[in-house]
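Quick start: read one record
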Amino acid sequence: MNTKRSFGQGRRNFYRLIPAIVLVAVVFILITSSLALSNENQPNLIRKTIYGQVEGAIDQATNGLVWLGIRYAKSPTGDLRWRPPQEPEKWEGVKEAKSHAPIGIQGTGGTGEEDCLFLDIYRPNSEETGLPVYVWIHGGANETGKAAGNNLSFFAKEANVVAVCIQYRLGPLGFFKHDALNTGDPVADSGNYGLLDQMFALSWVKKNISFFGGDPKNVTAAGESAGAHDILSLMMSKYAKGLFHKAIYQSGGMEVIRLPRAKKQSDGYVKNLKLTSTGEALARELRALDAKVILAAKPKNTRFGVIVDGHVIPDSYYCLLEKGDYNKVPIIMGGNRNEYTLWLLLGGGPKRKWGKLWRITSKSRKKTVAEILTPEEQKTYALTSSITGRLWQAKQVHAVARSMRRFQEDVYVYDFQWGGTKGTDVEFVFGAAHANEIAYFNFKANFDIWAKGKSITEENKAARLALAKAMRTYYAQFLHTGNPNGKVKLPVWEKWSNEKNGVKTLNLDASSEPGSADLNVFMTKREYVLKDLNKEIDEMTDKTAQEITRRIVSGRNWIDPLCRKASD
């Protein structure tokens, strides 16, 4: 069995495949119901900002108020490409804010527009002011994603908050470190333009959200996947201090990019673009190019993690966390039981069979797991799914929680376990997959991300709805007070403890019994440690699972020590 060949191919395609799928699919599926907007001119739909007035609309499905496509910065085009975001121009009269702005240009095909620095606002249809503010930063490997599709109207109404969804520069337009662009200003020269956009949007919220009934002194910044990676980045930068007061970190999984690698990647773009000039001449040529041409010149294995530039981001997360050198705010963080199943399928697996598991969701070519994998092959897949999910959480969640808990009290950690009815093919293949928790924390648990809705059944509806309601309630209470516990009677979500036998994570799951609404929500002492898991890999008797897992561990840097000074 040539697992080396099959996974070598999968890894070579990994970063080419993921940006086109990960979280683009999420935001697409998140369109659980389209915005039906009222065109009636109602006084409370016109709100001022420090730049001018905007007129929103009513979401007919929720009766909530929405303002879509509000510009928070100048168009980052022309001479403003690869520069920090700038204040937008003021305007006279009232601008309509009833439709989404164009998505940020993304992917090697260049879908979208370079002029993308806009945000959407959702709030309940009431006169209440001083509401908590929830700012959502979308995922997508910092290369794809959009605000449109993240309809937060239902969540804003139920949680009684003002919700904001922002867009930011993506891919090489958002994360690009080349010496030809240097100005002498360490912020402008950081290469972290997408992260600076996020800071600028949070600053816009601080200055303007009170006009929409939000409390600028009670802002929670939240994100999933790359969005969570960016949340952690904001916590590590002194330039984001005071822009938000609480944080939510869901399934962060990306690595920061060290300076040598960031420069190498940018040099790769210049080489592929066949540009030979240097200095200011090269900067002018780069800014004169069509954005689509730049995106199409992507070098192999390029990633768009936040850049450790030494100033905006002074060091790796783990080194900063080790010293307690970060913006300390109450935080909820967590991961999903089967974070890595998507990548297992994309990698192909032994004899490319794991890639065929997508067929369980197919209408025309549908197959069962038993028709694709032998019983022994099923054991290998299940073992690999389990260990990779735990490895993900060990580094990206539990190590972060343990470090933070040394310096602050209010660290709350969850472990999302729900992947559909236990014993079904969809639960076996995808399980509690990456991004699946979004449907439960922000929506009505009426979609899944990768399984094309196959985990959504009438039999498990009561369980899904009960779990989603509990999860949304925890979040709402956290947004209001900084504590996920409150007046609503739910199991107490205790803080992460660094004590050996202390409580760690909140188990989020529900019954698989048809029609049951019983929750499996309780505190556990579950903590995953990289050292222990790598020992478990060494002791595996399933050599196929062992080989595959070792390759994934190497590719993802799921190894100790977490704080490494050497460049990657």
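The first strand starts at residue 46 and ends at 48.
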